Amino acid sequence: MTESLMTRIARGEEAAVAEVMEQYGSLVWAIARRLTRNPSDAEDAVQEIFTDIWRSAHRFDPAAGSEKVFVTTIARRRLIDRMRRLANRVQTESTDVLDELGFHTPDTAAEISVEAERAARVVARLRPEQRKVIELGLLHGLSHSDIARVTQLPLGTVKTFMRRGLIQVREMMGIGPEVAGAEGDA
Amino acid sequence: MSASFLDDATLADLLVQLETEGLAAAESRELDARLARSPGASRDALAPAAAALTLAARLPQEAMPAALRARIAERGREAVRATAAGKVVQFGAPPATAAVRGSLLGWYAAAASLLLAVTAWWPRLAEPPAQVAGIPLPVPTLAEQRAALIASRQGVIQQSWTPTEDAAAGGLAGDVVWDPATQTGYMRFRGLAANDAALEQYQLWIFDGTRDDRYPVDGGVFDMPAGTDEVVVPIHARLPVRKAALFAVTVEPPGGVVVSARQRIVALAQVATG
Predict the structure, then answer these.
(1) FRET label pair with B170: which of A11, A87, B76, B192, CA 20 to 30 Å apart?
(2) Does B97 lie at the interface with A, CB-CB under 8 angstroms?
(3) What ipTM goes with this model?
(4) B184 to chain A, minimum CA–CA distance in Å?
(5) Alpha carbons A121 and A131: distance in angstroms, whole number
(6) Check whether domain A90-177 has CATH 1.10.10.10, yes or no
(7) Quick one: fold of A1-88?
Protein backbone atom coordinates (compact mmCIF):
# COMPACT_ATOMS: atom_id res chain seq x y z
CA MET A 1 0.00 0.00 0.00
CA THR A 2 1.34 3.42 -0.92
CA GLU A 3 2.37 5.48 2.04
CA SER A 4 0.31 8.62 2.46
CA LEU A 5 1.81 12.01 1.78
CA MET A 6 0.92 13.15 5.28
CA THR A 7 2.83 10.27 6.79
CA ARG A 8 5.85 11.15 4.68
CA ILE A 9 5.58 14.82 5.67
CA ALA A 10 5.31 13.89 9.34
CA ARG A 11 8.41 11.73 8.97
CA GLY A 12 10.34 14.68 7.55
CA GLU A 13 10.54 13.60 3.92
CA GLU A 14 11.28 16.83 2.09
CA ALA A 15 10.41 15.48 -1.36
CA ALA A 16 6.82 14.97 -0.24
CA VAL A 17 6.28 18.72 -0.02
CA ALA A 18 6.26 19.13 -3.80
CA GLU A 19 3.84 16.23 -4.10
CA VAL A 20 1.50 17.77 -1.54
CA MET A 21 1.56 21.03 -3.45
CA GLU A 22 0.89 19.18 -6.69
CA GLN A 23 -1.88 17.11 -5.19
CA TYR A 24 -3.65 19.67 -3.03
CA GLY A 25 -2.40 23.13 -4.03
CA SER A 26 -5.22 23.84 -6.46
CA LEU A 27 -7.84 22.38 -4.13
CA VAL A 28 -6.78 24.54 -1.19
CA TRP A 29 -6.48 27.58 -3.42
CA ALA A 30 -9.99 27.01 -4.83
CA ILE A 31 -11.50 26.68 -1.36
CA ALA A 32 -9.64 29.75 -0.14
CA ARG A 33 -10.75 31.79 -3.14
CA ARG A 34 -14.34 30.80 -2.36
CA LEU A 35 -14.19 31.79 1.27
CA THR A 36 -12.09 34.96 1.18
CA ARG A 37 -12.78 38.40 -0.14
CA ASN A 38 -10.05 38.77 -2.71
CA PRO A 39 -6.88 37.14 -4.06
CA SER A 40 -4.72 38.91 -1.50
CA ASP A 41 -6.79 37.48 1.37
CA ALA A 42 -6.72 34.10 -0.29
CA GLU A 43 -2.92 34.19 -0.52
CA ASP A 44 -2.62 34.92 3.20
CA ALA A 45 -5.13 32.23 4.04
CA VAL A 46 -3.48 29.59 1.89
CA GLN A 47 -0.14 30.20 3.58
CA GLU A 48 -1.80 29.73 6.96
CA ILE A 49 -3.52 26.57 5.77
CA PHE A 50 -0.34 24.97 4.52
CA THR A 51 1.48 25.92 7.71
CA ASP A 52 -1.27 24.00 9.52
CA ILE A 53 -0.91 21.08 7.14
CA TRP A 54 2.84 20.74 7.72
CA ARG A 55 2.27 20.88 11.46
CA SER A 56 -0.76 18.61 11.58
CA ALA A 57 0.40 15.94 9.13
CA HIS A 58 1.19 13.56 11.97
CA ARG A 59 -2.47 13.63 12.99
CA PHE A 60 -3.67 12.13 9.72
CA ASP A 61 -5.44 8.84 10.30
CA PRO A 62 -6.34 6.94 7.11
CA ALA A 63 -9.00 5.05 9.03
CA ALA A 64 -10.86 8.30 9.69
CA GLY A 65 -11.05 9.41 6.06
CA SER A 66 -9.04 10.19 2.99
CA GLU A 67 -6.14 12.57 2.85
CA LYS A 68 -8.24 14.86 0.69
CA VAL A 69 -10.86 15.10 3.41
CA PHE A 70 -8.13 15.73 5.98
CA VAL A 71 -6.65 18.59 3.95
CA THR A 72 -10.08 20.03 3.19
CA THR A 73 -11.00 19.93 6.87
CA ILE A 74 -7.85 21.82 7.81
CA ALA A 75 -8.55 24.36 5.07
CA ARG A 76 -12.15 24.85 6.15
CA ARG A 77 -11.29 25.20 9.84
CA ARG A 78 -8.56 27.71 9.14
CA LEU A 79 -10.76 29.75 6.80
CA ILE A 80 -13.65 29.80 9.26
CA ASP A 81 -11.27 30.87 12.00
CA ARG A 82 -9.91 33.55 9.73
CA MET A 83 -13.36 34.80 8.76
CA ARG A 84 -14.26 35.15 12.40
CA ARG A 85 -10.97 36.83 13.21
CA LEU A 86 -11.19 39.30 10.38
CA ALA A 87 -14.98 39.61 10.58
CA ASN A 88 -15.12 39.48 6.82
CA ARG A 89 -17.94 37.06 6.42
CA VAL A 90 -19.65 37.61 3.10
CA GLN A 91 -22.32 40.26 3.35
CA THR A 92 -24.94 40.22 0.69
CA GLU A 93 -28.47 41.36 0.13
CA SER A 94 -29.63 38.92 -2.45
CA THR A 95 -28.75 35.60 -3.96
CA ASP A 96 -28.45 37.43 -7.26
CA VAL A 97 -24.99 38.64 -6.31
CA LEU A 98 -23.83 35.18 -5.34
CA ASP A 99 -22.45 33.27 -8.25
CA GLU A 100 -23.94 29.83 -8.67
CA LEU A 101 -21.56 27.06 -7.81
CA GLY A 102 -23.67 23.98 -7.53
CA PHE A 103 -22.52 20.46 -6.93
CA HIS A 104 -21.12 17.75 -9.11
CA THR A 105 -23.30 14.84 -10.08
CA PRO A 106 -22.37 11.60 -8.33
CA ASP A 107 -20.69 10.41 -11.51
CA THR A 108 -18.40 13.40 -11.88
CA ALA A 109 -17.84 13.66 -8.13
CA ALA A 110 -16.57 10.10 -8.15
CA GLU A 111 -13.55 11.36 -10.09
CA ILE A 112 -12.67 13.60 -7.15
CA SER A 113 -12.98 11.17 -4.27
CA VAL A 114 -15.26 8.53 -2.87
CA GLU A 115 -16.39 10.96 -0.16
CA ALA A 116 -17.28 13.57 -2.76
CA GLU A 117 -19.28 10.99 -4.68
CA ARG A 118 -21.22 10.04 -1.57
CA ALA A 119 -21.87 13.67 -0.70
CA ALA A 120 -23.03 14.33 -4.24
CA ARG A 121 -25.45 11.42 -3.99
CA VAL A 122 -27.01 12.99 -0.91
CA VAL A 123 -27.12 16.42 -2.52
CA ALA A 124 -28.83 15.02 -5.61
CA ARG A 125 -31.71 13.85 -3.44
CA LEU A 126 -32.22 17.15 -1.64
CA ARG A 127 -34.91 19.67 -2.42
CA PRO A 128 -33.53 22.70 -4.30
CA GLU A 129 -34.03 25.04 -1.35
CA GLN A 130 -32.14 22.71 0.99
CA ARG A 131 -29.36 22.35 -1.53
CA LYS A 132 -29.19 26.13 -1.73
CA VAL A 133 -28.95 26.49 2.03
CA ILE A 134 -26.03 24.05 2.16
CA GLU A 135 -24.30 25.75 -0.71
CA LEU A 136 -24.63 29.19 0.88
CA GLY A 137 -23.38 27.97 4.24
CA LEU A 138 -20.55 25.72 3.20
CA LEU A 139 -19.35 27.26 -0.03
CA HIS A 140 -20.17 30.94 0.27
CA GLY A 141 -19.40 31.30 3.95
CA LEU A 142 -22.72 32.87 4.88
CA SER A 143 -23.87 32.68 8.48
CA HIS A 144 -27.16 30.97 9.20
CA SER A 145 -28.86 34.29 9.79
CA ASP A 146 -27.50 35.66 6.50
CA ILE A 147 -28.77 32.55 4.73
CA ALA A 148 -32.19 33.06 6.28
CA ARG A 149 -32.22 36.66 5.11
CA VAL A 150 -31.02 35.85 1.62
CA THR A 151 -33.32 32.89 1.05
CA GLN A 152 -36.30 34.32 2.96
CA LEU A 153 -36.48 31.08 4.92
CA PRO A 154 -37.07 31.02 8.69
CA LEU A 155 -33.83 30.69 10.66
CA GLY A 156 -35.06 27.44 12.18
CA THR A 157 -35.61 25.99 8.73
CA VAL A 158 -32.13 27.00 7.66
CA LYS A 159 -30.65 25.27 10.70
CA THR A 160 -32.74 22.16 10.10
CA PHE A 161 -31.71 21.99 6.43
CA MET A 162 -28.04 22.35 7.33
CA ARG A 163 -28.22 19.82 10.13
CA ARG A 164 -30.09 17.19 8.14
CA GLY A 165 -27.87 17.64 5.11
CA LEU A 166 -24.63 17.20 7.02
CA ILE A 167 -25.94 14.26 9.01
CA GLN A 168 -27.15 12.53 5.85
CA VAL A 169 -23.76 12.96 4.24
CA ARG A 170 -22.12 11.69 7.39
CA GLU A 171 -24.28 8.59 7.35
CA MET A 172 -23.70 8.09 3.64
CA MET A 173 -19.97 8.14 4.39
CA GLY A 174 -20.54 5.27 6.78
CA ILE A 175 -19.74 7.26 9.89
CA GLY A 176 -23.09 7.20 11.66
CA PRO A 177 -25.51 6.80 13.19
CA GLU A 178 -23.82 5.43 16.24
CA VAL A 179 -25.43 3.89 19.24
CA ALA A 180 -25.29 6.08 22.28
CA GLY A 181 -22.51 4.80 24.47
CA ALA A 182 -20.57 3.29 21.60
CA GLU A 183 -16.90 4.04 21.49
CA GLY A 184 -15.13 5.95 18.81
CA ASP A 185 -16.15 8.35 16.17
CA ALA A 186 -15.03 9.82 12.90
CA MET B 1 -32.90 3.69 13.77
CA SER B 2 -30.25 3.75 16.45
CA ALA B 3 -30.02 6.53 18.98
CA SER B 4 -27.29 9.01 18.20
CA PHE B 5 -25.85 12.00 19.99
CA LEU B 6 -26.86 13.89 16.86
CA ASP B 7 -30.49 13.38 17.89
CA ASP B 8 -29.80 16.20 20.34
CA ALA B 9 -30.75 19.06 18.00
CA THR B 10 -28.91 21.69 20.02
CA LEU B 11 -25.73 19.64 20.06
CA ALA B 12 -26.09 18.94 16.35
CA ASP B 13 -26.71 22.62 15.60
CA LEU B 14 -23.56 23.58 17.48
CA LEU B 15 -21.58 21.00 15.53
CA VAL B 16 -23.04 22.34 12.30
CA GLN B 17 -22.17 25.89 13.30
CA LEU B 18 -18.63 24.79 14.14
CA GLU B 19 -18.21 23.56 10.57
CA THR B 20 -19.93 26.47 8.85
CA GLU B 21 -19.44 29.76 10.66
CA GLY B 22 -17.44 28.84 13.74
CA LEU B 23 -18.31 29.23 17.40
CA ALA B 24 -17.97 32.06 19.86
CA ALA B 25 -16.23 31.22 23.13
CA ALA B 26 -19.51 30.74 25.02
CA GLU B 27 -20.91 28.51 22.28
CA SER B 28 -17.73 26.48 22.24
CA ARG B 29 -18.02 25.92 25.98
CA GLU B 30 -21.63 24.86 25.60
CA LEU B 31 -20.63 22.42 22.89
CA ASP B 32 -17.91 20.95 25.09
CA ALA B 33 -20.35 20.57 27.96
CA ARG B 34 -22.87 18.79 25.76
CA LEU B 35 -20.20 16.56 24.24
CA ALA B 36 -19.06 15.60 27.71
CA ARG B 37 -22.57 14.38 28.48
CA SER B 38 -22.85 12.42 25.22
CA PRO B 39 -20.95 9.14 25.11
CA GLY B 40 -19.36 8.52 21.75
CA ALA B 41 -19.81 12.11 20.69
CA SER B 42 -17.02 13.91 18.94
CA ARG B 43 -16.33 17.56 18.25
CA ASP B 44 -15.30 16.49 14.76
CA ALA B 45 -18.43 14.49 14.07
CA LEU B 46 -19.51 16.60 11.11
CA ALA B 47 -16.10 17.70 9.84
CA PRO B 48 -15.75 14.90 7.26
CA ALA B 49 -19.26 15.60 5.95
CA ALA B 50 -18.53 19.30 5.57
CA ALA B 51 -15.29 18.44 3.80
CA ALA B 52 -17.00 15.93 1.53
CA LEU B 53 -19.66 18.46 0.54
CA THR B 54 -16.93 20.97 -0.22
CA LEU B 55 -15.17 18.41 -2.40
CA ALA B 56 -18.45 17.67 -4.17
CA ALA B 57 -18.94 21.31 -5.10
CA ARG B 58 -18.07 22.75 -8.45
CA LEU B 59 -15.19 24.83 -7.18
CA PRO B 60 -13.60 27.27 -9.58
CA GLN B 61 -10.69 25.81 -11.48
CA GLU B 62 -7.98 28.34 -10.98
CA ALA B 63 -4.29 27.66 -10.53
CA MET B 64 -2.54 28.95 -7.46
CA PRO B 65 -0.18 31.80 -8.37
CA ALA B 66 3.25 30.38 -9.11
CA ALA B 67 5.08 32.72 -6.75
CA LEU B 68 2.76 31.81 -3.89
CA ARG B 69 3.13 28.13 -4.62
CA ALA B 70 6.91 28.48 -4.59
CA ARG B 71 6.84 30.42 -1.33
CA ILE B 72 4.64 27.86 0.38
CA ALA B 73 6.74 24.98 -0.91
CA GLU B 74 9.90 26.61 0.39
CA ARG B 75 8.31 27.10 3.82
CA GLY B 76 7.12 23.53 3.71
CA ARG B 77 10.55 22.21 2.92
CA GLU B 78 11.99 24.27 5.79
CA ALA B 79 9.41 22.84 8.17
CA VAL B 80 9.91 19.27 7.00
CA ARG B 81 13.70 19.67 7.01
CA ALA B 82 13.55 20.87 10.57
CA THR B 83 11.47 17.84 11.48
CA ALA B 84 13.97 15.52 9.85
CA ALA B 85 16.88 17.25 11.55
CA GLY B 86 15.41 16.73 14.98
CA LYS B 87 13.85 20.15 15.02
CA VAL B 88 16.48 22.19 16.80
CA VAL B 89 15.98 25.75 15.69
CA GLN B 90 19.04 27.90 15.42
CA PHE B 91 18.92 31.57 16.11
CA GLY B 92 20.96 33.63 13.71
CA ALA B 93 23.64 36.10 14.66
CA PRO B 94 22.25 39.12 16.48
CA PRO B 95 22.01 42.30 14.41
CA ALA B 96 24.52 44.97 15.34
CA THR B 97 21.79 47.47 16.15
CA ALA B 98 19.92 45.25 18.55
CA ALA B 99 19.73 46.45 22.11
CA VAL B 100 18.38 43.55 24.13
CA ARG B 101 19.54 40.81 21.84
CA GLY B 102 22.65 38.77 21.80
CA SER B 103 23.53 35.76 23.80
CA LEU B 104 21.19 34.03 26.15
CA LEU B 105 22.63 36.34 28.77
CA GLY B 106 20.83 39.17 27.03
CA TRP B 107 17.53 37.32 27.26
CA TYR B 108 18.03 36.67 30.92
CA ALA B 109 19.06 40.26 31.45
CA ALA B 110 15.90 41.45 29.79
CA ALA B 111 13.83 39.11 31.93
CA ALA B 112 15.54 40.23 35.09
CA SER B 113 15.40 43.95 34.41
CA LEU B 114 11.80 44.23 33.27
CA LEU B 115 9.77 43.57 36.35
CA LEU B 116 6.04 44.08 36.25
CA ALA B 117 3.47 43.81 38.99
CA VAL B 118 1.57 41.08 37.21
CA THR B 119 0.20 39.67 40.42
CA ALA B 120 -2.07 42.67 40.77
CA TRP B 121 -3.66 41.72 37.51
CA TRP B 122 -4.24 38.04 38.21
CA PRO B 123 -7.78 38.25 39.58
CA ARG B 124 -9.05 39.68 36.34
CA LEU B 125 -8.18 36.47 34.58
CA ALA B 126 -11.18 34.68 35.99
CA GLU B 127 -13.41 35.25 32.97
CA PRO B 128 -13.21 32.73 30.17
CA PRO B 129 -10.64 33.66 27.56
CA ALA B 130 -11.04 33.75 23.82
CA GLN B 131 -9.18 31.17 21.82
CA VAL B 132 -7.01 30.99 18.82
CA ALA B 133 -8.11 28.11 16.72
CA GLY B 134 -4.99 26.43 15.47
CA ILE B 135 -5.16 22.92 14.22
CA PRO B 136 -8.13 20.68 13.68
CA LEU B 137 -9.45 18.09 16.08
CA PRO B 138 -9.45 20.04 19.34
CA VAL B 139 -11.63 18.55 22.06
CA PRO B 140 -12.15 20.80 25.10
CA THR B 141 -11.48 24.52 24.87
CA LEU B 142 -7.90 25.62 25.23
CA ALA B 143 -8.67 27.32 28.53
CA GLU B 144 -10.13 24.07 29.83
CA GLN B 145 -7.18 22.07 28.57
CA ARG B 146 -4.84 24.51 30.28
CA ALA B 147 -6.75 24.31 33.54
CA ALA B 148 -6.83 20.53 33.32
CA LEU B 149 -3.09 20.39 32.74
CA ILE B 150 -2.40 22.52 35.81
CA ALA B 151 -4.74 20.42 37.91
CA SER B 152 -3.61 17.08 36.58
CA ARG B 153 -0.11 16.69 37.85
CA GLN B 154 2.71 18.00 39.94
CA GLY B 155 5.78 19.44 38.33
CA VAL B 156 3.89 21.66 35.91
CA ILE B 157 5.75 24.92 35.40
CA GLN B 158 3.72 28.11 35.59
CA GLN B 159 5.56 31.36 35.03
CA SER B 160 4.32 34.90 34.37
CA TRP B 161 5.41 36.77 31.29
CA THR B 162 7.77 39.70 31.65
CA PRO B 163 7.10 42.16 28.84
CA THR B 164 9.96 43.92 27.08
CA GLU B 165 9.89 47.49 25.86
CA ASP B 166 8.64 46.43 22.43
CA ALA B 167 5.56 48.40 21.41
CA ALA B 168 3.52 45.21 21.00
CA ALA B 169 4.09 44.35 24.65
CA GLY B 170 2.62 47.49 26.18
CA GLY B 171 0.23 46.29 28.88
CA LEU B 172 1.15 42.66 28.35
CA ALA B 173 0.42 40.22 31.13
CA GLY B 174 -0.21 36.51 31.29
CA ASP B 175 1.72 33.35 31.86
CA VAL B 176 3.12 30.22 30.38
CA VAL B 177 2.23 26.75 31.63
CA TRP B 178 4.46 23.82 30.68
CA ASP B 179 4.36 20.19 31.68
CA PRO B 180 7.79 18.56 31.21
CA ALA B 181 6.26 15.10 31.59
CA THR B 182 3.80 15.35 28.71
CA GLN B 183 5.70 18.02 26.78
CA THR B 184 2.53 20.08 26.51
CA GLY B 185 1.80 23.61 27.54
CA TYR B 186 -0.18 26.77 27.01
CA MET B 187 0.53 30.47 26.85
CA ARG B 188 -1.94 32.96 28.16
CA PHE B 189 -1.85 36.57 27.04
CA ARG B 190 -3.68 39.71 27.95
CA GLY B 191 -2.70 43.02 26.42
CA LEU B 192 -0.42 41.65 23.71
CA ALA B 193 -0.99 43.68 20.55
CA ALA B 194 -3.10 42.13 17.80
CA ASN B 195 -1.03 41.25 14.76
CA ASP B 196 -1.77 41.30 11.06
CA ALA B 197 -0.90 37.74 10.11
CA ALA B 198 -0.19 38.88 6.57
CA LEU B 199 2.66 41.02 7.86
CA GLU B 200 3.99 39.34 10.96
CA GLN B 201 3.29 36.62 13.51
CA TYR B 202 4.37 35.83 17.02
CA GLN B 203 6.68 32.90 17.61
CA LEU B 204 7.60 31.10 20.81
CA TRP B 205 11.09 29.86 21.60
CA ILE B 206 11.95 27.51 24.46
CA PHE B 207 15.45 27.48 25.87
CA ASP B 208 16.41 24.07 27.14
CA GLY B 209 18.89 24.08 30.01
CA THR B 210 20.43 20.86 28.75
CA ARG B 211 21.06 22.19 25.28
CA ASP B 212 23.35 24.79 23.83
CA ASP B 213 21.94 28.23 24.61
CA ARG B 214 22.27 29.25 21.01
CA TYR B 215 19.74 26.68 19.89
CA PRO B 216 16.32 27.27 21.43
CA VAL B 217 13.47 24.96 20.48
CA ASP B 218 10.79 26.36 18.20
CA GLY B 219 7.56 26.51 20.21
CA GLY B 220 5.26 27.43 17.34
CA VAL B 221 3.84 30.45 15.53
CA PHE B 222 0.64 32.12 16.64
CA ASP B 223 -1.57 35.17 16.18
CA MET B 224 -3.26 37.62 18.48
CA PRO B 225 -6.79 38.38 17.28
CA ALA B 226 -8.04 41.93 17.70
CA GLY B 227 -10.75 42.72 20.19
CA THR B 228 -10.10 39.91 22.62
CA ASP B 229 -9.34 40.42 26.29
CA GLU B 230 -7.42 37.26 26.78
CA VAL B 231 -6.07 34.55 24.54
CA VAL B 232 -4.83 31.04 25.28
CA VAL B 233 -2.39 29.54 22.80
CA PRO B 234 -1.14 25.95 22.83
CA ILE B 235 2.58 25.33 22.70
CA HIS B 236 3.86 23.13 19.89
CA ALA B 237 7.44 22.30 20.82
CA ARG B 238 9.30 20.82 17.87
CA LEU B 239 11.74 18.90 20.05
CA PRO B 240 11.59 17.32 23.45
CA VAL B 241 12.44 19.96 26.03
CA ARG B 242 14.35 18.28 28.83
CA LYS B 243 14.70 21.27 31.15
CA ALA B 244 12.83 24.40 30.19
CA ALA B 245 14.87 27.40 31.30
CA LEU B 246 13.35 30.35 29.48
CA PHE B 247 10.37 31.01 27.23
CA ALA B 248 10.66 33.89 24.78
CA VAL B 249 8.18 35.35 22.30
CA THR B 250 9.43 37.16 19.21
CA VAL B 251 7.78 38.87 16.25
CA GLU B 252 8.62 37.21 12.97
CA PRO B 253 7.55 37.19 9.32
CA PRO B 254 4.32 35.26 8.49
CA GLY B 255 4.77 31.56 9.05
CA GLY B 256 7.61 32.07 11.49
CA VAL B 257 11.29 31.50 10.94
CA VAL B 258 13.77 28.75 11.41
CA VAL B 259 16.52 31.25 12.21
CA SER B 260 15.38 34.30 14.11
CA ALA B 261 17.01 37.68 13.62
CA ARG B 262 15.91 38.49 17.18
CA GLN B 263 14.97 41.98 16.19
CA ARG B 264 11.75 42.06 18.19
CA ILE B 265 11.42 40.24 21.49
CA VAL B 266 8.11 40.97 23.19
CA ALA B 267 7.90 38.69 26.21
CA LEU B 268 10.07 36.50 28.39
CA ALA B 269 9.31 34.01 31.10
CA GLN B 270 12.28 32.73 33.03
CA VAL B 271 11.75 29.48 34.83
CA ALA B 272 12.72 29.63 38.47
CA THR B 273 15.62 27.33 39.29
CA GLY B 274 15.82 25.21 42.33
Answers:
(1) A87
(2) no
(3) 0.89
(4) 15
(5) 12
(6) yes
(7) Rna Polymerase Sigma Factor; Chain: A (1.10.1740)
